[in-house]
Task: structure prediction
Amino acid sequence: MTTPDFPELPAGFRFGAATAAYQIEGAHDQDGRGPSIWDTFSHTPGRTLDGATGDTACDHYHRHPQDVALMRGLGVDSYRFSIAWPRLLPRGTGPANPKGLDFYDRLIDDLPAAGVAPAVTLYHWDLPQTLEDRGGWRVRETAEAFAQYAALAVERYGDRVERWITLNGPYCSAFAGYAEGRHAPGAQKGRGALAAAHHLLVAHGLAVRELRAAGAREVGIALNLDRIHTASALPGDRAALRRAEVLHNEVWTEPLLAGRYPAHEAGTWAGLADGPWRLPGDLELIGAPLDFLGVNFYRPITVAAAPHRTDDLELRTATDIGVRELDPYGTRLTTMGWPVVPEALTELLRALHARYPRLPPVWITENGSAEADAVGPDGRVHDTARTDYLADHLAAVAEAVSAGVDVRGYYVWSLLDNFEWARGYGQRFGLVHVDYDTLTRTPKDSYHWFRALITAHRARTEETTR
Ligand code: IFM
Result:
C-alpha cells in the first residue's frame, strides 16, 4: 500500500471536519426537542432504506465529549456542525428550549478547549414539523421564523462561533424535498419546489441580516454545486445541459452572487422569476455580500436531453425539465454510485471564479466519499480508497488555488459514519467508523492520514512564513 503525497496548500489554509445534527445526534425526543420533518419522514414506512431513522444515529447528543476528543486527536482547525432548529425551538417559533440551548453551549465551549473553532450551520434539513404543518418552505412565514431562530442562535453563541452557515444544500431542501420527494417532507405535488427555493433564499437573506446586526464573525451559505457535462455537441443535449446547470447551480448562485434570477431558458424557469412568492426588494435581500461561499462537492454529472414538459409549472424534477442523467462510466464509483473525478472540482471552482466577479472567498464545506468500510481483524479500518479520494480532491483544490481561486479551507464530509438520509446507515462517509450496535468509534486509516496531512501542512507553512 502506498500513501498518497500531501497536496501543497497555501499558508493559512484551514482544515476541518463536518457533520449535521439529524445525521449524528440521536436523542430525537429527549430534553424537550420537538419533531422535525425528518422524524416524520423516516418514521413513514418505505421512505428510508430498511426503515432507518435518526432516533439514535451516532448518539452524539450523549457522546459529544468523546467526539470532541476525536477532533482534538485529528488536529482539525474547525468543526462544522448544525444546530437542530427543533432542539432550540421545539415548535419552530415561540419559547426556546433551555436544555437544547445548553447542549450547544457545552459543545461550543468544549471545542475551543480542544483547539477547534466552531462553525455552525443553522439549517441542515431538519425543519420543525410544526412549521411544515403550516406550509413549510412553500410559505414565506417559514423564512420569517428562520430569521427569528437565527437571531436567537447568534445572540446565544455569537461570541464563540467563528463561522456561520445559514443553509446547507438548499437544492435538496427545495427540489429533493418538494419535487422529487426523496427527502423530507417527501412532497411531489404542487408548485412547492419553486416557492420553496425562493423562500429558502429569502430565509438566507433575512438570517444574514440578523447575523450581521449581532456582529457575527464570518457569514456564508453552503451550496451543493455540481460540475455538469454533456456527452455530445447536439443542440438538444447542449440545451439540456444549460437547463441542468440552472436547476442544480444557478437557481442559487445567480441571486446570491449576481443579484439576478437565472436566465429564462426554453421557458423552463419562468416560474422562478415570476412566481407570486417574489416580493419587491427580495433580490437585494438575497444578494447581500457574504464573507464566504461554502461549496459542497462530491462528483460531476453527465446529462442528455429527454422528452419533457417545459410548460409544466407543477413539478421541477430534472425529468420535468427534459434532463436525463447518464450512468457514469470509465471511472471508479463510490458506494453511492458516484464517479470519482477530482479535476471536476478544479473545473467547478474555476468556473465560479470566472462567472462571478463578486465571488467571495470559498470554503469547501463538504467533500468525501462513501466506501464499504469494516473493522478488520487487526482492529483497524483500511480505507485506502477514501484516503486516495481526499488526497486527489485536495490536490484539485490546490490546482484551483494556483489558478487564482481564493479557497480558504476544506471540511471533510464527514467526521463520523452517520445517517445518510433516505439511504439510511448503508453509506459510510466517516473518517471515524461507527458500529451502530455498540456505537463504538474506530478512527479509520484516513483519519490518521488526515491528521498527518494537517501536521505536515503546518510544519511546511510555518517554516516558509518564518
Ligand atoms: O450526507 C450528506 C450531507 O448531509 C449533505 N451533503 C451530501 C452528504 C452526502 O450525501
In short: Residues 139 and 447 are 42 Å apart (CA to CA).
